[in-house]
Structure formats: C-alpha cells, structure tokens
Amino acid sequence: MDQHITKIKTTLDALKNLIDDIESDKQNENDQDFSLELGDLPYRVIHLNKNPYVNIIEQEEVHYEALQKENERLKARLSLIESGNDANVTMRIDEAVNNAHQVELLTQMVADYKSREEKILTSLKKTAFGFREACLLLTGYRVDALKDNIYRLSLEPSNSDERLFFDIKRDGRVVLLENDYSKRFSRHINTYLKNADSYPAFLAAIILESFESSNKAVNATQAIDMSMSMSTTIIPNYR
Question: Domain residues for 123?
C-alpha cells in the first residue's frame, strides 16, 4: 500500500511540474508584445486561415485540460487510499489475483483430465482389439460393431459378400438381417433359429459346415495331387 501511495504521489508531482511549465509558457507568450503597426513593417503581413502556431496553442490547451483531469482523478484516488476508503479497489485486485490463480488451477486440472482420458482411450482400444481377436480365435468369427446396435460377423478368411448382420434390440432380442449370404443357410435358420431360438447353435452350425467344406476341399486337393504324382511315376522295365 505504501509503495502504491508513493507511486501516485510521484505521478502527481510530475503532473504538477508539467502543468506549471505549461502555465509559465502561456504567461510568457501573453507578456510578449506582438503588436506592430502595419506602416512600420517594411514588408506585407499575410495572415493564414489556419495558423500553425494557433493550432499548436490549441493542442497544448487540450493537453493541459487532460492533465488537469488526470491530476484531479489521481488526487481523489490518493485521498481515498490515505483515508482507508479504497477497500473496494483492493478487494477487486485481490479477487482478480484469486481468479487468475483459480484459472491456472482449472487449466492444469483440465490438462490432467485430458491426459487421463487419452490413457483410458488407449487402454480401451487395446482391450477392444484383444477382445475381437479372442472372439475370432475362439468362435471363428470376426465381430465388428456398426451403428445403431448392428453387428457384423464374418468368417476368416472370407470375402466381402460372406457376412452376417445382426440387430441386437434394447430388450435383448437378436434379429438376423437377411442378405444373399444368410439365404444360403435357410436349413440352419429353420432348425436353430425358428425351432430352437438359438443363435449360438446357428453360428456353430455354419462354422461346422465351413469346416467340413474346407476339409473336403483339402482332401480333394490332396487326392488330385497324389493321383498326378502316381501317374507321372516311371515304372522300370525288367524284361
């Protein structure tokens, strides 16, 4: 508070000196005798409509009035401070400092929460990836969650057309969405969905059918390879 008062007093003294200098200059200008008889001058006097000297005087007067107002304002503020009635100003300063401190704390808290959120999201992504891989290894299906509770199941490996789509309702009901691929399993739909209402059995039946088809294809390929190998074997002639 003492430093604040000292600073204001110093500013007041500087303003007083500046005002005194301006008043002294104006007094000196008034004391000078600029009255000359026109006939006494050996040359013609031309008066400008906008005399630069007059403009300077007017600007100095405006500056002088502004300094007087600032001087009065600082005097009033100094009087309030010295009388102890400047509590509102001090309170506002304290509130501003506290608010700045609170903003800094909140900014740090937001940064901490964002850092935690990023860590949680990273952990969730890893968990989700691990869960999807576990589903693929244990069930044979890759599960992808689409919008509006729609789930896509595809066998691995498979092409883009060999996919099943399911709509899981909020009440827990599961609905198989019909497409060209699902129509291939009409027998399994009747047996496991319509009659038994068992989606796990339906999906397992498709897995077993795919497994059997793959084995048949492998066996057929092996048989063809063996047949071709036998047909190309050269039998030696012992005659």
Answer: 91-139
Are residue 125 and residue 193 in the same domain, yes or no?
A: no
Torsion 152-156-160-162 (CA) sign: negative
- Closest residue by Cα to residue 147 from 160, 165, 131: 165
Between residues 238 and 156, which one has the greater pLDDT?
Answer: 156
Residue pLDDT, tens place only, 43-93: 555 555 555 656 677 777 777 777 777 777 676 666 656 666 555 655 654
Q: pLDDT tens digit string along 103-116?
A: 878 888 898 888 99
Decide: 3 and 58 in contact? Cβ < 8 Å.
no
CB 206 within 8 A of CB 185: yes
pTM above 0.70, yes or no: no
The answer to whether residue 79 sits within a structural domain is no
**Measured distance CA(70)–CA(165) in Å, rounded:** 79
Contact 179, 190 (CB under 8 A): no
Q: How many CB atoms lie within 10 A of CB 202?
A: 21
